[in-house]
Amino acid sequence: MLIVSDPHAIRQILTDNRTFIKGADYTEKFREGFGDGLVTSNGDKHKHDRTCLGKYFIKSNIEKYLGMISGHTLQMMGEVIEPAAGGTLNMQHFFHILTLRVFGQFAVSHDFSLPENHQSAEWLNEKVCWGSNVLGEHIVLNIPMWSIVPRVTKFRKIIKEMDDLFDTIIDKRIMEIERGEDVPDDCLTALLEDNQTRSELNDHLRTLLCAGHDTTAYFCCYMAYLLAQNPRAQDKLRAEFQTVLNGRTDITNEDINNLPYCKMVMQETLRIYTIIPFVN
User: Fold this and answer.
1) How far is CA 20 from CA 2, 15, 16, 130, 172, in A?
2) What is the structure's pLDDT at 10?
3) pLDDT, tens digit (0-9, with 9 covering 90-100), for 199-229
4) Cβ neighbours around 18 below 10 Å, total
5) pTM of this prediction?
6) I need a surface site. Which of 113, 230, 263, 266 has the fewest CB within 10 A?
């Protein structure tokens, strides 16, 4: 198995459908979780959806969300890390909830940080963590996704429950559009304007919110783990941030360009660990 982390290589792999075709073993198993979303679709379907959603993932658009990302990070640190000072902390849970909040805001403008959404965020996080390990194991060990396998039946039941949760987000946006309200320019609005079916909408939301936040969270976990194992690298990275930010807590695009050691730490993390747990 070859794991690719170079951005230019990834771009070519994801956009050149003639040379890089997603194999049946990959698509059939991942389709159990993500239907025909961007992770699993091929050919014209993938090209169409990439055109529909592509503008939201270009660098200039993502830069607009740096303030939101910084805000959610600081809020989570205040909620979770500061109260645990001197004790133990489940960093996997911390990063999963944080990335879910970020992806929820980015993709569908849904704020999982609100108190009324905490329970659904915890439920979604738990089910996604469990499901990603199941899919990883079935892919790596080539285990069929047969209904007679108890956890496959459980997996499919969870997918239905996820769709019920996402339906409430979709229905709320549809009502806002029908009432003529101003709606966010995000992935959900783009998919609705593209007249995607309810099934396609659910496939995309599972891909964006589940696969997106889960893989990012595991990447953050592995990077934190490696930094904890390498105090010199941790000190060097901290010094770089202190120099560039100079006491600020917000991150700008200019700051990112001035953090070369941070970029190297991230790339080294991706060299050592994949973002799908069982593959490691």
Assistant:
1) 13, 8, 6, 29, 38
2) 80
3) 999 999 999 999 899 999 999 999 999 999 9
4) 6
5) 0.91
6) 263
